[in-house]
């Protein structure tokens, strides 16, 4: 073979390699337009390799989409999951030890966000909670991120989860190139939530029990509660009447303890989590992946012994339940609704086992195994 033929073959091979590399890089850098939960049309690199989660609890969703390794593209995150859900953090850390190397962006609810730190991590996409939209606008953060070439998308798992969980999961699925996983979750979510609606949707309001829900009982002074959103909406979708919806319009509110005791609700719900790390003085019900039945029951009983509570008909009739507080910021909140519906209408839901469903959810969608306690009834 002549040297000219060899050279020509080498040139063709080199061109083919260069073309393949170019096409591969172009595919990796594919830009798509998405509409986020703030209604913004955003251009974003599909399947980014470096993202920052403004809130650590956004991991609950990322773990469903990047189940093989939820941390593989996370270069920074807020410290709220580590601080407020240590049981979950330890489960993930045990399976993914490199999670400890993710940059700590600090308290996601602090006034200032370090634009410099976000940029220094090579961030391609910054995921923000919808509740921070106006603050991000007012501080100029959105403009700075845009100038730096960092796409920002807003999701919502807290302000209005019953409306926004599905579009938030679908949005992240598109951005991360995980549409298949997002669709699988959507199908499961609709199956479970429609099951509730089909059974309680026709019950007249006058026949629905009045339910008071105390937010972070034992951590916050009594009686923090919810208006017609979040846990307040969970109660309503489960077939109850949320006490707070009568008086408040916001996401969360402060109710006078005397008023709650006087109104004497039919059912008393409360939320709790393991806050001992961030709040050593907490007397909340420490629900979560590391909870034990004995400890949970002891904490729940103590809260129901506060002045005036033993006289409540809900306490006397054992119509008291504690729920994992983190349901309020998670795509799998519907499991709490199932447990509520079964408590409110045991005959209608006698064939439904919420714990078995939550275990199945872990097996189908999450990389960690089920453990602990996520709701408990006063014994």
UniProtKB/TrEMBL annotation:
Keywords: Signal. Gene3D superfamilies: Nitrogenase molybdenum iron protein domain. Residues 50-352 form the Fe/B12 periplasmic-binding domain. Residues 1-29 form the signal peptide. It comes from Bosea caraganae. PANTHER family: MOLYBDATE-BINDING PROTEIN MOLA, VITAMIN B12-BINDING PROTEIN. This is ABC transporter substrate-binding protein. The lineage of its organism: Bacteria, Pseudomonadati, Pseudomonadota, Alphaproteobacteria, Hyphomicrobiales. It comes from the Bacteria. SUPFAM superfamilies: Helical backbone' metal receptor (SSF53807). The keyword Methyltransferase does not apply. It holds the Pfam family Peripla_BP_2. InterPro entries: ABC_Transporter_SBP, ABC_transptr_periplasmic_BD.
